[in-house]
Design brief:
Layout: E1 18-31, E2 34-41, E3 44-51, H1 56-64, E4 70-79, E5 94-105, H2 122-127, H3 129-132, H4 136-158, E6 162-163, E7 181-183, E8 191-193, H5 199-207, E9 212-220, E10 232-241, H6 245-263, E11 267-268, E12 275-277, H7 278-285, E13 299-300, H8 302-306, H9 311-318, E14 322-328, H10 336-348, E15 355-359, E16 367-368, H11 377-387, E17 394-400, H12 402-420, E18 427-428, E19 430-434, E20 439-442, E21 447-450, H13 465-468, E22 477-482, E23 485-492, H14 497-506, H15 511-525, E24 532-537, H16 539-547, H17 577-582
Parallel strand pairs: 3-5, 6-9, 11-18, 12-19
Antiparallel strand pairs: 1-2, 1-4, 2-3, 4-5, 7-8, 9-10, 10-24, 13-14, 14-17, 15-16, 15-17, 19-22, 20-21, 22-23, 23-24
The protein binds one RNA strand of 76 nucleotides through strand 1, strand 2, strand 3 and helix 2.
Length: about 600
RNA sequence: GGGGGCGUAGUGUAGCGGUUAACAUGCCGGCCUGUCAAGCCGGAGAUCGCGGGUUCGAAUCCCGUCGCUCCCGCCA
């Protein structure tokens, strides 16, 4: 080894020891006869002192050294003189008196700062990702990611789970996300698909009798990006036999609690995690992935608003639509312009408008609002009371169909929380969403679409509804939401042939289609399939939230840009015509004409 | 596929019709034996992403384009 110790580990107890360190020059301070170098390695930073009087050769070299040069030094750990201690550094009580210094490698001046956190253009970071990853904040994130994954492996292994790898080259599945395809050289005109998740394979492992399986699985989806979505991402894929919904949820809940408590300083808002039905979460938060770090819940005002003389509300309620609202704390003083901006947000979600009432402790009535004149004093009072609004609050009201109202108020709730600083970055709030509808009606195709996937079991007591009222049937599905993100989804699967065929029928899949696409699954299920279920937490999103980062690129070593490109390597790229010929592929200019 | 934001020395920003294109930091040179965002002195460094247009005059206004980013659609 070229080093005897790590930079970050040296303390007062090492004083007097001769050590050899190696790493990168983080900063340098040249005082002519005395040079200070901050030496950085993965473990931290150690101050080096190079004195002309005691080490003339090392001193001469040290004066030429620059940022990010790679050096090796040998010297004695000494306590810093009184008053020279740096309380900001874990190693701040000591320094290394260097006797010899070797330049292992010089470095060009980096294109951006390694030694301070500054917002650097994302394209530049990605182009020089290996330098970006050198920054302490990125190293902290990737180390946290490692610790989370190690924790998961240990936790599940200790509980009888076996980690099994499944193929990356698999079969296309037309439903769901767009597949990444890989052409087959040996089978002209045929393609593999990269897995969107190992869903089918983990169920087959249950048929195979492994009972408890997990995998840190890379998944691929060729869809457009978001801050929390990359074309390739990592899931903890997990499946268990002979379990019910509660078993899977309890396992994951306990694991998540321990991860937060043992690996982070975050404050867990609620333990155990709240369990909200799909109906309830939409009613209270307008979304199935609520941020529970703050309140500002949505309240239904349909009865009061419907009885008012405000035509927009009365007509909406008469038409079977709904009127709901939220109270933004302390926003009664918002200017007309600020309220208009909120209205634009609501309209972007399909709302036709945004009504508002400012709650004021005035003598002229409980609220100031352009629509106050359409309400009686009692109605206004009732609204303020039901909203739980205090003087100074701004009540924002949307009237429309339930999905539009939910979408608009969800957007307003998140936007306002962000502006008002309600989402405490030191807190983390999980909740389970259960009792999802098994199907969503696809009006275009005139059929039911599975709301999770087509192997999700209905609630056993809802099985009769499949024949009478499929839209009312609930699935044995469970999602885990955290701080406004969906971080896991799972279900108990169907292991009964008759129910599975009924589902295929409802989603418009005839027996021949089903055989074509899932023949291997259906055949396997005939050989003694245990009741089973599983879940798949997204590792990137989880680590993002644990690290307090705003997007998953910050916890992925080499992520893609929003345009699904790697700016460092230059991928994707054109390939040699010979490669294409071997793969029986011809590139067609789709932009032509 | 659609909508929004950003693009100015190596980096981060200011400037938003007429400036010698500013500031900080980094870089180069000099001074300096207790700094730790070291300090002081001096210097170099920008065809203002690219292309076109409007104008007497464009970093600034308009159109297009490229890149990054946020959002909608999409993501069983």
């Amino acid at each position: 080894m070229l080093k005897t110790h790590q930079c970050g580990e040296l303390r007062l107890e090492h004083a007097g020891q001769q050590v050899t360190l190696a790493g990168w020059v983080h900063r340098w301070r040249d005082h002519a006869g005395l040079v200070f170098l901050d030496l950085r390695d993965r473990s931290g930073i150690m101050q080096l002192k190079v004195d002309q009087a005691s080490a003339p050769e090392a001193h001469a070299l040290a004066r030429d050294v620059r940022s990010e040069w790679v050096i090796q030094v040998t010297g004695t750990v000494v306590a810093r003189p009184a008053g020279m201690v740096n309380p900001d550094l874990p190693t701040g009580e000591v320094e290394l008196e260097v006797s010899t210094l070797t330049v292992l490698n010089r470095a060009k001046t980096p294109p951006f700062y390694i030694n301070k956190d500054e917002n650097v253009d994302e394209a530049l970071r990605m182009r020089y990702r290996y330098l970006d990853l050198r920054r302490p904040s990125m190293q902290r994130n990737l180390i946290l990611r490692h610790n989370v994954i190690r924790f998961i492996r240990n936790y599940l292994s200790d509980r009888g789970f076996i980690e099994i790898e499944t193929p990356i080259l698999f079969k296309t599945t037309p439903e769901g996300a767009r597949d990444y395809l890989v052409p087959s050289r040996i089978h002209p005109g045929k393609f593999f698909a990269l897995p969107q998740s190992p869903q089918q394979l983990k169920q087959l492992l249950m048929v195979a009798g492994y009972e408890r399986y997990f995998q840190i699985a890379r998944c691929f989806r060729d869809e457009d990006q978001r801050g929390d979505r990359q074309p390739e991402f990592t899931q903890l894929d997990l499946e268990m036999s002979f379990v019910e919904r509660e078993d899977v949820m309890n396992l994951i809940e306990d694991m998540m609690i321990r991860i937060v408590e043992e690996l982070t300083d975050l404050e867990l808002v609620t333990k155990p995690f709240p369990r909200l039905s799909h109906d309830e979460v939409l009613r209270r938060f307008g979304t199935d992935k609520p941020d529970l770090r703050y309140g500002m819940e949505i309240v239904d005002l349909s009865d009061i608003a419907g009885a008012s003389s405000f035509r927009v509300f009365a007509d909406a309620v008469a038409a079977g639509n709904t009127v709901r609202a939220l109270a933004a704390p302390g926003c009664a003083s918002y200017s007309r312009k600020q309220i208009d901006e909120l209205g634009v947000l609501a309209q972007a979600e399909g709302a036709k408008g945004l009504a508002w009432m400012a709650v004021e402790p005035g003598e002229e009535g409980p609220v100031r609002s352009p629509i106050a004149k359409y309400f009686s004093a009692e109605q206004l009072q009732a609204i303020v009371e039901r909203m739980g609004a205090a003087p100074g609050d701004l009540i924002l009201i949307v009237a429309d169909t339930a999905p539009v109202v939910c979408a608009a108020l969800d957007t307003l709730r998140r936007t306002l929380a962000s502006r008002l600083g309600l989402a405490d970055p030191k807190k983390i709030a999980f909740c389970w969403i259960v009792d999802f509808p098994l199907f969503e009606w696809n009006a275009e195709e005139q059929r039911w679409d599975p709301s999770h996937h087509l192997f999700t079991a209905p609630m056993w007591e809802d099985v009769p509804l499949l024949d009478t009222d499929p839209g009312k049937a609930r699935g044995q599905q469970y999602d885990l939401a955290c701080n406004g993100y969906e971080i896991a989804g799972g279900s108990i699967r169907i292991h009964d042939r008759a129910i599975q065929e009924k589902i295929f029928g409802l989603i418009g899949l005839d027996v021949e289609d089903a055989k074509q696409r899932f023949g291997h699954m259906l055949e396997a299920f005939e050989y003694g399939t245990p009741p089973h279920g599983g879940i798949a937490p997204g590792i990137d999103r989880l680590v993002m939230l644990l690290a307090g980062e705003p997007n998953i690129r910050e916890v992925i070593a080499f992520p893609k840009t929003q345009q699904a490109a790697d700016l460092m390597a230059g991928a994707p790229s054109e390939v040699d015509p010979q490669q294409l010929a071997e793969l029986h592929i011809r590139v067609v200019d789709s932009t032509g004409g």
